[in-house]
Design a protein that fits this description.
It is built from seven helices and 19 strands. With 307 residues, the protein is of the alpha+beta class. The longest helix is centred in the middle third of the chain and has 12 residues, at 149-160.
């Protein structure tokens, strides 16, 4: 149960206010309304009532559990869905700290002032967890958090020294023919945020390495399903490297072709970070994780393959 003070400047129907809010669908709220699980100023409501600024709204709905892939006393691996940025209080990082995406959605819808029963907001949350890396907004998959300062230092060091292996599945447009380890140079434009990959070095560019393996070809659709390992980990590396190699992640609006994305009805890039493996220093506190493969079950199910 959570209580909220509605802070909207204009009066609004509950269902209209909720429509389109990530994590709390119109249908979900309508179901709660029909069952009398919503109260306005302490009174049960069963109809799509109008709320105005200052009204107290109580929602009797349990927040979904965070999709935890792996957890121990030092690290937390959580699945991030597509469509939400990784960092910030208004991103996936904030959701993990609060313990559930629906709590965050309700706060955005109804305003910032909340009054909950003691323990409700924190239940299942990780207030002190530190985000250790990021995925692009429209890339889903495993994100690692450190649960204490020592783990945070060790994880960041491992990322810097390329001791953490991240694997992805990608559905790309084009007949991909560049299996194996591919090296190139990436330059990120600071103004528009677009990364450009070239075969040779240019001033300001960074060397990148990406390993590709074709799992399946869909020749009638001109699509290829790839298993990708990041050897280096630069911003937009996979997406920009694929463009350099003559393909693009289906659904990618920045490095792909919107006309083709629309033809397939794919609005978000089909790129999933499905596994992560560690190689920590032998004298570190996280060495017990070495060789452990933290992975999504049935990762192919996260990729939308057109018929």
């Amino acid at each position: 149960m959570e209580k909220f003070i509605y802070n909207g400047n204009n009066a609004a129907r509950i269902l209209k206010a909720a429509d389109g809010v990530s994590g709390l669908s119109y249908g979900r709220l309508a179901g709660l309304l029909r069952r009398g699980e919503i109260r306005v100023n302490g009174k049960k409501v069963y109809e799509n009532v109008t709320v105005k600024k200052g009204d107290e709204i109580t929602v009797f709905a349990s927040a979904p559990k965070l999709p935890v892939v792996y957890e121990d006393e030092n690290i937390l691996a959580v699945y991030k869905r597509k469509g939400i940025k990784s960092d910030g209080d208004d991103g996936f990082e904030g959701e993990v700290k609060r313990g559930g995406y629906e709590n965050a959605a309700l706060r955005r819808m109804l305003g910032n002032n909340t009054d909950t029963e003691e323990g409700e907001v924190r239940r299942g949350g990780y207030e002190n967890a530190a985000l250790c890396h990021r995925l692009d907004t429209n890339t889903d998959g495993i994100v690692i958090f450190a649960k204490n300062a020592d783990a945070e230092i060790e994880i960041f060091r491992a990322f810097k020294e390329h001791k953490i292996e991240k694997k992805y599945l990608a559905l790309v447009f084009g007949d991909f023919k560049a299996d194996g380890l591919q090296t190139a140079y990436l330059h990120k434009d600071k103004d528009d945020g677009v990364a450009v990959v070239c075969a040779g070095y240019s001033k300001g560019a960074e060397r990148i390495e990406t390993r590709f393996l074709t799992l399946e070809r869909f020749e009638n659709l001109n699509l290829s399903l790839l298993d990708i390992t990041l050897v280096t980990g630069k911003t937009h590396q996979i997406r920009a490297h694929l463009k350099h190699l003559g393909c693009f992640v289906l659904g990618d609006g920045k490095y792909g072709a919107e006309k083709i994305n629309r033809r397939f009805g794919i609005a978000k890039q089909q790129l999933t970070a499905y596994a992560i493996k560690f190689s920590f220093a032998e004298d570190g506190k996280l060495k017990y994780l070495n060789g452990k493969n933290i992975a999504l079950e049935n990762p192919r199910s996260f990729i939308k393959i057109p018929k």
